[in-house]
Structure formats: structure tokens, C-alpha cells
Write a structure and sequence with these properties.
The chain is an alpha+beta fold. The protein contains 3 helices and 4 strands. A 4-stranded mixed sheet has the order 3-2-1-4, with helices on both faces. Helix 2 packs parallel to helix 3.
Length: about 120
């Protein structure tokens, strides 16, 4: 049975994400930063895979109006701000070093802006 275009795209992304997860694991010392991108929003969670628990999470839905970031606007600025907010929450929880899981998405655009915001907030990866 042939899948429609969007279902096929989701299936391929899930397959890529699964392949990456085989080699990557988050621990309590160095949790995994998982990124999920939808058409309107982006979400990030720090996950401890040993316990199967989410330590910190943030979404652009929960943020107020994203302030303008130099050279960025709209969803890119919101992604950068969300990454920075996640880093601040992680710092207050005592987390400084992480493993970045791009979630099967290409590392560009909003995913890259989210990662850059997390780095600017002080996370090391």
C-alpha cells in the first residue's frame, strides 16, 4: 500500500531517528536533548534514558512573544529563545553537559537555531 507524501516523510524521519538512537544514550550526568519540530512550534526535552525520565522541557507554545534576536525573526527567533530558555532551566537543575539528538531532522534552520540558543545559554555539547 502506498503512503501519501507526508506519511512517507514521517516514516523516513522516524527511521532516521531510530538509527541515531541506537548509538546515543542520555544519562543523569549527560542527558539527551531531544528536539521535535512541528510546522508552527519546536520543543526540546532533556531525557535521562537510564531512568526513562524527562528532566527539563520547553516549547515555543509556552513562551511569550519571542523577542527579536539579531539576524533572526519569526520562528527562527522563537527557536533560538526556546533553546536559551531550556539551557537556563537545565543550569538551574545542575545540568551543564548534554548529548544533542536532532530527532531525525536535518541540522539546519530551526533545529540549528535551537541548538545555538542552548549553546548560548551555557550548555556544552
Amino acid at each position: 500500500m502506498a503512503l501519501n507524501k507526508s506519511a512517507e516523510r514521517r516514516r523516513r524521519r522516524a527511521k532516521r531517528h531510530k538509527r541515531v538512537l541506537k548509538k546515543m544514550r542520555g544519562t543523569a550526568d549527560r542527558p539527551r536533548l531531544v528536539v521535535f519540530r512541528s510546522l508552527k512550534n519546536i520543543e526540546g526535552q532533556l531525557v535521562d534514558d537510564d531512568r526513562g525520565a524527562t528532566l527539563v522541557g520547553v516549547s515555543t507554545q509556552a513562551l511569550e512573544e519571542a523577542p527579536e534576536v539579531e539576524d533572526l525573526s519569526g520562528k527562527m527567533a522563537a527557536s533560538y529563545t526556546a533553546g536559551k530558555t531550556l539551557a537556563e532551566k537545565a543550569k538551574s537543575a545542575g545540568i551543564e553537559s548534554i548529548v544533542f539528538d536532532r530527532g531525525g531532522y536535518r541540522y539546519h534552520g530551526r533545529v540549528k537555531a535551537f541548538a545555538d540558543g542552548a549553546r548560548a545559554g551555557g550548555l556544552k555539547f
